């Protein structure tokens, strides 16, 4: 590619945000939510999560505008908390992205099984082979050029939104208010009871946070945007679009059938719901949409982790090999490294029936690390510049965002967060190599050694929990 690379505009970046987030989760969110929460609790949960994600998006926009010299969300962690902080954030983001691809592979094979029964439950040998072929197809596509892949992603985003909006329209016209309000709070008394409702909200956190992974996509690709302001606008437009689609698709089903019936539907739940309204063609329509959706999201999440390791290598947080570009300006080694690890994890689908849930739980837990560093730096930067107009408001946004994501880690299952720490041990060795290549003699400070000790202890605890069955695979 020539030195004058084609930059990504508002439409392409907004599509990237939406496509990065709308993957497989939205097609199964009806059942996942019905298992965790009643209509009333689900609405409150969306308000809480919506505000929490808004704090993240506002922080990203503020930092993109105030620190245009920084690139990607990992750079905020490095600017605020040093090179090791940047590594922890970037490695968490990278881990989250390729684990998400494993979840996509599982669900895509399940969707294909609707048309081709040979795929079974999506985790047999033929499923592994086909998923592997698609995985390497993604590698070669992105390796030919990130910008051309993003252009294709815009088209895919438009295509996959069609079945989602079709479901929304049909569900609105079929909505029954008496069904929706029959068991509104899901409590024994039928009334609002704080403890029970809060428990439902907590139980739904992992589901809700999973569908927002990818919201930071425009910020990660800010260097390839037409301008930093375009990256900020894309983030807000993406959030508004996602909230509109997510809330309607997760709440409307409560007015179509009883909560218990929704919870017992197979996956993708949206297909079974639409089939109950319009006939068998509805399930086929949704499964086709799901396959297209996953393809687009898989494509986005092949670009994003490669971009992450590229930025980390440029910042001397990983070995220089990760920063090498081919003629199309794509980080071939970073892509290959990630694809091989994804391939190895895909093989585990042969040994578990819960690979999708396990993969997306790890994916969501890992991304919390990067998000917390964004809100922490937002609070730190704003406090350091508190004498300037509006900075104290930005400080409050950062603090609220940090509190929310710390709570989200606990509420959605801290065991998955601890399990992610095992992969950090591999990353630390690569980090040391990268720092040594940059000529840094003293790689860690005393405080950073404490952080490493926490990572090792947390990883050991998670391995023990996994071995004793306390973490379900």
Automatic annotation (TrEMBL):
The UniProt record lists the keyword Cell membrane: yes
Keyword Membrane: yes
GO molecular function: arginine:ornithine antiporter activity
Gene Ontology cellular component annotations, sorted alphabetically: plasma membrane
Pfam families in the record: AA_permease_2
Family annotation (InterPro entries): AA/rel_permease1, Amino_acid_antiprt, APC_superfamily, Arg/Orn_antiprt_ArcD
First-listed, main subcellular location of the protein, grouped into a coarse class: membrane
Membrane topology note: Multi-pass membrane protein
Residues spanning the membrane: 41-64, 125-142, 154-177, 236-257, 277-304, 333-352, 358-379, 391-410, 416-432, 452-472
Compartment annotation: Cell membrane
Family to which this protein belongs: Belongs to the amino acid-polyamine-organocation (APC) superfamily. Basic amino acid/polyamine antiporter (APA) (TC 2.A.3.2) family.
Protein name in the entry: Arginine-ornithine antiporter
Organism: Velocimicrobium porci
Lineage of source species: Bacteria, Bacillati, Bacillota, Clostridia, Lachnospirales
Gene of this entry: arcD
